[in-house]
Amino acid sequence: MDKIIGLGNALVDVLATLDSDEILTKMDLPKGSMTLIDEDKLLKINEEFSRMKTHLATGGSAGNAIRGMAQLGAGTGFIGKINNDSYGNFFRESLLKHGTEADLLVSDTLPSGVASTFISPDGERTFGTYLGAASTLKAEELSLEMFKGYTYLFIEGYLVQEHDMILRAIELAKEAGLQVCLDMASYNIVAGDHEFFSLLVNKYVDIVFANEEEAKAFTGKEPEEALDIIAKMCSIAIVKVGARGSLIRKGTEEVRVEAVPVAKVVDTTGAGDFFAAGFLYGLTCGYSLEKCGKIGAILSGEVIQVIGTELPDSKWEKIKEDIIMIN
Fold this sequence. Notes:
- Belongs to the carbohydrate kinase PfkB family.
- By secondary structure, the chain is α/β, with parallel strands linked by helices.
- It has twelve helices and 14 strands.
- A nine-stranded mixed beta sheet has the order 6-5-1-9-10-11-12-13-14, sandwiched between helices.
- Strand 7 and strand 8 (125-130) form a beta hairpin.
- The radius of gyration is 18 Å and the shape is globular.
- It has one domain: UDP-N-acetylmuramoyl-L-alanine:D-glutamate ligase.
- It is 39% helix and 24% strand.
């Protein structure tokens, strides 16, 4: 089976369920977005969290996707940067527990990254992300050896502020013969660095994941047209359209996959990451685009029914049974 390595911000999620969206306005966090914050704002958020019930989970977009694939039995690795503090150790142990080869570099200057995660009453999540040690991963720390033995590199769009590091990672991955997958991550990130995203997708990326807001920020178009535009730039384009499922295009082949019906959305954290996990797991198994999309739909449907991105082992066993039953 093909192996896949993720490159991303090594983050721990601190999640809080909100009674109203008032705190988002107070903290100047646009609902549904990921906003990078400094240490001062993190302290203000922590003060608010001290009066609320919070839940700790391993996070980071690429980290979530890699853990999902590892749970399904895929061969996985992860490159990121942490501090040897309690959050960093929590993140490392989570990767190793699921069999992922953890290539975690260590910062001794900044603490490990934290994503303060606000879950609105409708299940939508909003992130205030303090990158900390994760932001100190530099191009010169990457080596060709890190990428050898893998077939795919999965990059989260949240990393694009580090242009040199991303380009170096892609250069090394291509030299090692890997295909490059990019998850666009958040509409405001795409809009804020549009030119660089265009360069990546046009020149380097083989597989693109975007939700409809990200696809619109990138192309200015609605999902069907956006899919057409992105698919002309890369090998496989996926545009996720929430409860309506996903659109997938490879060359002239186009597939629409329905979302798995869910009675109650608890928390959308990790929905896109888990879709990517399921889809890429399917690719490593050599499945059809439709089956890959259906596995993605199963995983994303499950993770939105829990707070955070941790599913119990019994749930993973059920997911594996469901995958076997897909035509």
